[in-house]
Amino acid sequence: MKRIIEISIILLACLILSYCEKQDNQIETKFPGDVFPIKIETNKTWYTKLEPIPIEIVNTSDSLAMYYKCSSYEGIPPNVYKLTNGEWIAYWVQLCDGFMSFCCPSFFGGESYKDTLDIDFSTGTYRLEYQFIVRPSHDYKSFFSNSFDIR
Predict the structure, then answer these.
(1) What is the pLDDT of residues 77-99, one digit of tens each?
(2) Integer Cα distance of 137 and 27 in angstroms
(3) Looking at domain 31-150, which of 2.60.40.10, 1.20.120.10, 2.60.120.620, 2.60.40.2550 is its CATH number?
(4) Which residues contact 125 (CB under 8 A, 6 or more apart)?
């Protein structure tokens, strides 16, 4: 009888730990309905060094997405990351002076935004990061584009 109780306690502890781990992963990485509300894509998977890179951002949610308007960038400001030794390292970021920068212009549900990056890239693999506040969150969340190569 004592052995059965010990086995039951161990099984119960394993079930509880498994459930807690599953809940933590869902909170950190997923939105309701497992849908990522912001979709960011380039039109190709590789570009030449001097080629401008067209991007499209789509708010696939049914609510507003808000972003920080940087005075020194006309559109929605991206961060560009380069894959270096298996790690994404910041390559180019828009510096905001704070003087005419502000929160929070709205990007409506279903709306599409198009931009063209004309940055002096070196050869390598890159991806773009955009930060939005998307309900039900009140914090900025990072959304990433597909990766692309510069040849």
Answers:
(1) 999 999 999 999 999 998 887 77
(2) 11
(3) 2.60.40.2550
(4) 82, 83, 147, 148, 149, 150
Helix (H) or strand (E) holding 25: helix 2-29
According to DSSP, the residues that pair with 71 across neighbouring strands are: none
Q: How many residues does the chain have?
A: 151
pTM of the shown model:
0.74
Eight-class DSSP state of 150: E
Give the whole-angstrom CA distance, residue 31 versus residue 33: 6
pLDDT at 94 (0 to 100): 86
Q: Specify whether the CB–CB gap between 59 and 109 falls below 8 A.
A: yes
What is the per-residue pLDDT across 2-39, written as a single tens digit (0 to 9) for each? 555 454 444 444 444 444 433 333 333 344 444 579 99
Query: Cβ of 56: how many Cβ atoms within 10 Å?
Result: 14
Residues above pLDDT 90, as percent of the chain: 56
For residue 71, what are the contacts with CB-CB under 8 A and spacing of at least 6? 96, 97, 98, 99, 100, 101
